[in-house]
Amino acid sequence: MNRYTEQRIFAFLARASAALILAVLAIVVGVTIYRGGRVFLTDPAVVITPPGSRYMLDGGGGFLHAVLGSLFIVVPATIVAMILSLSTAVYLQSDYSSERTSDVINMFLNVLWGTPPIVYGVFVLTIIIAVGAQTSLIFGVIAIAIFQYPIMTRYADEALRSAPDAVKEASYGLGATRFETAKVTIRAALPGVIAGIIMGFARGIGDAATVLFTAGRSTQMPGGPFDPATTLPILIFEQAASFNAEVRSHAYAASFVLIVAVLALIVASKLLAGRYARFTPGGRQ
Amino acid sequence: MTHDTDSVIRTDDLEVTYTGNREITALNGVGVDFAENRLTAIIGPSGCGKSTLLKSLNRLHEIQPNAEITGDVYLEDEPVYDTDEPLPEIRRRVGYVPQKPTPLPVSIYNNVAYGPKIHGDHSREELDEIVETQLRKVNLWDEVKDRLDAPGAELSTGQIQRLCLARSLAAEPDVLLCDEVTSALDPISAEQVEETLADLKEEYTIIMVTHSMEQAKRLADDVIFLYLGDVVETNDARSFFENPQNERTREFVKGHTAVEYDDGEDDVSEGDGSADEVNGDDADGSRSTEETESIPAER
């Protein structure tokens, strides 16, 4: 084959694959917005109305319980995971660990990252059984935090590693302690760190398997941290499997809420990262 | 050294070895004195241990893994290695200006205020005063006084390097280490930084690594010539350049040693992986050859 033909074929494949991805994304987002948005426009109250007593059967009321459940589970979980993952990521830098130690820990993190979320769910379930508790919001928080931790740590680690060494050197050269230098390095790596946190949040808010056994499939408003709760992904699964057409249409409305939340987060992270990139040496490309 | 000023900082049989994939001795039992309120230039071919010597003075090379050290450094007769004094205190007293102009990821103001902030409590007024004083010392105040809250990273490379100088001075060091601070700058910025250094050497003990013979001639009071981890000759600048004692120094001053470069040793012993270490032009003393690599001056 002629090398120019080869080149043309490759260029075609590259463009086609990009177009395919964009098309799939557009269809998913489009269908969700079209079908969910329709419910939304005709009956926007479903998002802020608590479910009726027989919601899954007759669609009475809305799904505020799952919206709140998602928020109350994923926001605290993200905060916990953020603190843990930033600490770990700092520990993995050469200031604290030898290269070998951080390689080993990184391997474990990869294993954790690759572990299916349902496994975390079952793991937390055994804790619930061991302590004789019931599925509740607080255990959902724990399971989601464990699930987010390796994701956020890997992002933070990469971001800290790509921060210029000269920043570290400058900070130490001014007589900063390791902790003060870590803060400066995090500041220099902030765009990447924020991206990791948002990614962890988005993955957490979209995950069903971790929550299934830990917070439950409650159809009632969560009243406190020890009440059963549920999140949007589980709700969507239940709604989509319902016999009632109205409940099924609510599944699209719930998907719409979820997808808009994730998109909004990504936009927010871009804006935030851009703000901080101004301060990063060489950050403005 | 041949003058009678007291030494502020001296090394005693300092030996630094990098134990990586292959073992490299970067400094071979170096014992040198650095005199107070003078500017000492460390010169020598790439990979000869210049940066290592500089960074070992405030133990900055320790942030790279795999550096082993024997011997000691004495700062006003107090040991730097064999001591209970916290490392950050030593590094405050021996400031370091990196080769690559790197602002901290904060505002211009906070770049300068960083050292004072971490080392003591200062009121806002005190900090304002420190920032202005230090920025004036490096001739940057007039250029940035209206935008102190702008990110340090938005300045030009030359301005950033002067900001780095001000930042180091604000920590009130006894000794200032400058690692090829003009090598990443365009000629005009480099000249400004040189002028600043010339002003500063009246009040500070400055130790600088330089690639440029011309720069050493212009700025240095004393010169240390390192070759492959050994001190070949130290002398006051005038005697050093006009009447070198050692054969190797004579060759280097004339510009012949430059061909004997060992590029491989560069990355490990200099540690900063700087691109401009590999060209063999430092002995000819022209600054312009060094500005072709490294970071672009304009962004």
TrEMBL record, chain A:
InterPro entries in the cross-refs: MetI-like (IPR000515), MetI-like_sf (IPR035906), Phosphate_transprt_permease (IPR051408)
GO cellular component, one term: plasma membrane
Pfam family, one: BPD_transp_1
GO BP annotations listed: transmembrane transport
Subcellular localization, as worded in the UniProt entry: Cell membrane; Membrane
Entry superkingdom: Archaea
Membrane topology per record: Multi-pass membrane protein
Residue ranges of domain ABC transmembrane type-1 in the record: 67-269
Keywords assigned: Membrane, Transmembrane, Transmembrane helix, Transport
Location, primary (coarse class): membrane
Transmembrane annotation, as ranges: 12-34, 63-92, 104-129, 135-152, 188-206, 251-273
SUPFAM superfamilies registered for this protein in UniProt: MetI-like (SSF161098)
Presence of keyword Endoplasmic reticulum: no
Record has Transmembrane as a keyword: yes
Family: Belongs to the binding-protein-dependent transport system permease family.
This protein's name: Binding-protein-dependent transport system inner membrane protein
Originating species: Natronolimnohabitans innermongolicus JCM 12255
From TrEMBL, chain B:
Cytoplasm listed as a keyword: no
Region (Disordered): 256-299
Keywords carried by this UniProt record: ATP-binding, Cell membrane, Membrane, Nucleotide-binding
Pfam families reported in the protein's UniProt record: ABC_tran
GO cellular component: membrane
Domain of life where this protein originates: Archaea
One Gene Ontology MF term: phosphate transmembrane transporter activity
Gene3D superfamilies, sorted: P-loop containing nucleotide triphosphate hydrolases (3.40.50.300)
Xref: InterPro entries: AAA+_ATPase, ABC_transporter-like_ATP-bd, P-loop_NTPase, PstB-like
Record keyword Ribonucleoprotein present: no
Domain ABC transporter per the UniProt entry, residue ranges: 9-253
GO annotation, biological process: phosphate ion transmembrane transport
Ranges of compositional bias, category Basic and acidic residues: 284-299
Acidic residues: compositionally biased ranges: 260-283
PANTHER family: ABC TRANSPORTER I FAMILY MEMBER 17
Protein name per Swiss-Prot or TrEMBL: Phosphate transporter ATP-binding protein
Organism of provenance: Natronolimnohabitans innermongolicus JCM 12255
